[in-house]
Design a protein that fits this description.
The chain is mainly alpha-helical and about 230 residues long. The protein has one domain. It is built from eight helices and no strands. Helix 1 runs antiparallel to helix 2. It starts with a helix and ends in a 6-residue tail after the last helix.
Amino acid sequence: MRIKSLIALLIVVGIPFTTMIWFRIHQSTGFASTELIIYPLLFGSLGIGGVLLIKSYFLKEPLADFNSGKGSMWSDVLWGIFLTVIYFVLFYIERASLMGLLEFRSNTELLGLMLDMRESPWMVLVWFGPVLWIGIALFEEITRTFLLTTLWSFSSHAVWTAMAIAIAAAIVGLVHWSQGPYGIVTIAIKSIVIGVFYLKHRRLLPLVISHVLYDGLQVGALMLTYPQSQG
């Protein structure tokens, strides 16, 4: 069973990581705005389906594992808002303490998409709808929780449980390598918070909601405040 779990982890983690690297290497001119909408939605949907199939049919584990903790829709929403507040607190602390120490690479492609969305209502609807909710938030969080639950299945020892959270945080951070060392470290820090929360509550929806709110509020604020002369 451990061998099957390792194979599953290699597939779920390895395929998205290597695919992302391949795209970055071969897409030297960057991504167009429409590609930044189509690719996450297509790739994320396929990724979600792949994770669910592997867990259900290869590992033969119940999908309820993703959301096995006690809770309700309303408590999930409240926890999602709470996590979002924690993310923004960490954001400002990290910016004040780490920005001058670690290299940060701004996402010029996302900035271009944001500027294009200001001129195209359909892009706004699609990006803040299925792209953000499914292609980005749900895909990343269901992959993260799969990684955590699979690692935790190897041992229930407290040391291993903590190590699994750290390993998952490091992997998630490295997946965002295009944002530079600052992005890797700060995303890994937030991932540790997520790992601890998920260990205690075992609820997937709060992670998705907080991811949507954190990313959506930042993009929305930039869309409203970025100088029009740059568009």
